[in-house]
Give the backbone structure.
Amino acid sequence: MTAAITTETTKFGKGFLRDAWYFVDLSREIRPGTQARRMILGEPVLVGRTRAGQVFAMRDVCPHRAAPLSAGRIVDRGEDGGETVECPYHGWRFRPDGVCAAIPSLVEGDATDPARIRVRSYPVRESQGIVFVWMSADLRGGGEPDHEPPVFPGAEGEAKLVEAMTFDSHVDHAVVGLMDPAHGPYVHQQWWWRSEHSMHEKKKAFAPVEHGWAMVRHAPSSNSRAYRILGGAPATEITFRLPGYRWEHIQVGEKQVLALTCLTPLDDDHTRITQIFWSDHWVFGIAKPFLRMGVRAFLKQDGGMVNLQNMGLAFDPTLIWIDDADRQAKWYQQLKREWQKSRAEGRGFSNPIEPVTLRWRS
């Protein structure tokens, strides 16, 4: 049987998916009365939490003199008595919904109505201890969410382990690298994981899920040694969902492990990779330092390969993808095209992926 070969045009690695929920941070990192600057899809976003506990997000640019609002502070000086963000330059104050609440320099009798001035605000959701921001296709600040953020199986209680790194990569390349099943023996060569000498044929069943696909639940490959520390008979399911979430849910009897990776595009050339683990398995109580070392090693190795890849991408080459090892990369492109087309046509998303069994060596 001859494998299919496809080439990808220069559109790959360009632009972002909008009308989607993007990971910002864990809820515990956004404390009451604090705010911070984030870059998401090339936009400066202030993410904060009022002392009363409300999480909010707004464009981090004051409409007066363009100072970053995140450099200011949250104060109780709204005319309605509510909490506001105070600009550090001239003290203009904005409610969590982006509406200007006060301009201190105005004198009595001035006809300027602060309420007519506003900063773009972003819908925010908190779910399972995670903060998501909705990045609308309407850059003027409109566009209400028409779906909710994903719900992850096993994300219960406090996260046990969190590691993050910024890759010098467009999110498209980061996603494809994340879902690539064949690079492990070459990029991630550790005694406790696998090596090129232990490569053998893999055969896995895949199925469509909401806004993505899943490698359906199965026993981990015998050459992936890290699973052995879990004991018993682990069964794992690996899922990808737009715009950039990949999670592995492992069941070991009544215990479970969830490894969630969130990809947040900062701009055209940088993507924030955040790996979060939840588990009720005993191994996280005694082996956490070693697990952290392993996660950091994986991130550094992937980041190093991204830097090497950039040396070639600088020449804008046509990329050659083959079946079955690169099928997930092709699916990602198909999902992106359908997402953009469905939004443009004002209709529901129709997942183009069909159930299939894929084979490759790894």
Remarks:
- Residues 181 and 325 are 7 Å apart (CA to CA).
- The chain has a mean pLDDT of 89.
